[in-house]
Design a protein that fits this description.
The chain is α/β, with parallel strands linked by helices and 493 residues long. The protein has 3 domains: 2-24 and 165-265, 3-Layer(aba) Sandwich (Rossmann fold), CATH 3.40.50; 27-160, no CATH class; 294-486, no CATH class. Helices cover 47% and strands 13% of the residues. The strands form 5 sheets. Strands 5-3-2-6-7 form a 5-stranded parallel β-sheet, with helices on both faces. A two-stranded antiparallel sheet has the order 1-4. Helix 13 (422-426) links the parallel strand 12 (413-415) and strand 13. The longest helix has 31 residues, at 130-160.
Length: 493
Amino acid sequence: MGKGSEEGWRPRHAALSPLDRIPRSRTQALTRLAGLLSDLAAVAIASMLAYVGRSRLPVFSAVEDVTGSSLATGVLIALTWIACNAVLSAYSAREMGSGSWEFQRVAFGGMMAAGVVGIACYLMKYDLSRGYFLLLFAIGIPLMLIFRLILRRTLNRAHRRGVLQRRVLIAGTPQHIDDVVKVLTRESWLGYTVVGAMARVGWSADETPGGVPFVGATKNVVDLVEQYGADAVVFTEGSFPTSADFRRTAWELESLDAQMIVVPALSDISSQRVQVRPVAGLPLLFVEPPQREAAAHLSKRVFDLVGSAGLLVLFSPVFLITALVIWLDDRGPVIFRQTRVGLDGKEFTCLKFRSMVVNAEEVLKQIQHLNQADGVLFKMENDPRITKPGRFIRRYSVDELPQLWNVLRGDMSLIGPRPPLPKEVANYQSDVVRRLRVRPGMTGLWQVSGRSDLSWDDTVRLDLYYVDNWSMVQDLTILLRTFQAVFGRSGAY
């Protein structure tokens, strides 16, 4: 990448003229409106259910009259509830669509509204039905969270289809810009569309190695945000020569309704491991040690034992039906046994329902050139080795169920990295060997994030993230997301 003087820096993709300015997208306004309407619908439904429940449920006394007191104040309670959510920034478009903060603020908003209404009724000596009050918030808070979850799923699907996109400018060095663009492209549900890149004064290039066109210099970020109608600006490493330049840019962006996002040099580090502490006026990031050792603790093993035993009993009818179907298809073996590598490189026999022809390894030699994977794995969407029953059981991951016995024995865990083959481990680079620091799992981040659609690099990245950032909460989240991935339509072949 060549460099030039400050006066001579000119992007080959010239910036838009004032007459060609792009109006800012209405994505944030529409997102906020959708959240508001969702909450109003939840409060309205909860009010009706609370009224019916207070009037008809036998657990409540029939003495109180809810018609006059409760219904008359329903509108005021709804407005108070919405106001509490607004105070807690529950309608911030920047928080909606990803992360857990949105749900936390909605839950806190409901509790705040309950407190405000309760205190106001007490101070004003207003005779509000206690049964109605209890049912309203007991029903309303969970219902509002469910509506928000439905709204999030709807927004994510819209983003994947290219609807309600937020335009983004990215500043930094070409390599860092491409790294961010790769993530935003892969995670299309976030809804970011990159409209251009910005570089420090001195860079002279047409576009980044990844093909993102340079539209101007970082020092002109305010003009570029207005010209391209950007909803957000992402600053990566190398965006500014000094911290003073960054500070001045932050001041300039205060006048614009554009989100400022800073990508730190740290990557694939769980937020639970990072703490920001001001030291001598500097916001330092303190990173806690990885939790990979905690993944071997007694709590996880107990979770695996109880979970695998319970699932073995629960799916016993599925075991019998699947075994019968596989045997009737070609009279071959029902269980496929394969040597895999587990904790600390120890080999074990992994069990699966056979989903391929009996001579699958011989056929593999003939079709090896058709491999669609970019790493050490063999992946083929229409693999001729798969039998008719095999396509169904692989589609819904039924072939993995015998691994519950591996979990019970201690060879595997319910959640963890994918168990690799010995020949795959032989080709591992030094960093990838860290996957073997925990027991392999029946499911993991690799499955709930794309399954077979993931590239080898993405699979490794997710597995290493899991190893370094393990927590029981994460395990439970992955387990719940697994059901969605299994019954989804993509990535299983």
